[in-house]
Design brief:
GO terms for molecular function: GTP binding. Keywords: GTP-binding, Nucleotide-binding. This is AIG1-type G domain-containing protein. Belongs to the TRAFAC class TrmE-Era-EngA-EngB-Septin-like GTPase superfamily. AIG1/Toc34/Toc159-like paraseptin GTPase family. IAN subfamily. The protein is α/β, with parallel strands linked by helices. It has a single domain, classed as P-loop containing nucleotide triphosphate hydrolases (Rossmann fold, 3-Layer(aba) Sandwich). It has 4 helices and 5 strands; from the N terminus they run βαββαβαβα. The chain has helices spanning about 15-20, 65-75, 95-115, 130-135, and strands at about 1-10, 40-45, 50-55, 85-90, 115-120. A 5-stranded mixed beta sheet has the order 2-3-1-4-5, sandwiched between helices. Strand 2 (about 40-45) and strand 3 form a beta hairpin. The longest helix is centred in the last third of the chain and has 19 residues, at about 95-115. Mean pLDDT is about 85; it is low at about 140-143.
Length: about 140
């Protein structure tokens, strides 16, 4: 089984990402002034012929969240290759809160786990630009 652990700040779309991966609503996700996810939750589904477990976590800066997330990550780091940490960031200007959340996540995972981590950007639909036009692909022949 492949385990995907969603990490990041509050209101960046971790729960929505988990629901999208699992192709069903497992995690509560709604606009709110307060954190919606307050505990660690897990959902499992067969995706493309493989069992996938998605672990949703509270915002890493929320009070008490680090005490929940740290042992979870330590447990998953003991598993050889069956875990990917998805560090979720909202596509937006990098606020001090988002910067702190990213810094705390990197400190939590350490260098070894960064090899098993991916940055996942959410809210891309809110961008008012066509990314293909804004950042054309560079041909290797030109480099």
């Amino acid at each position: 089984m492949l385990s995907l652990v969603l990490l990041g700040g509050s209101a960046v779309g971790k729960s929505s990402v988990g629901n999208t991966i699992l192709r069903r609503r497992v995690f509560a996700s709604r606009p709110s002034l307060r954190p919606v996810t307050t505990r660690i939750e897990e959902g499992t589904e067969e995706v493309c012929g493989r069992q996938v477990s998605v672990v949703d976590t509270p915002g890493i800066l929320n009070p008490g969240a680090l005490d929940l997330i740290q042992p979870l990550c330590a447990q998953y780091l003991l598993q050889p290759d069956s875990v990917v940490f998805l560090v979720v960031l909202k596509v937006d200007r990098m606020s001090s809160e988002q910067s702190q959340a990213l810094q705390r996540t990197m400190e939590l995972l350490g260098n070894g786990a960064m090899e098993r981590s991916l940055l996942l950007f959410t809210y891309g639909a809110s961008l008012q630009v066509n990314l293909t036009d804004a950042h054309p692909r560079v041909s290797l022949e030109k480099v």
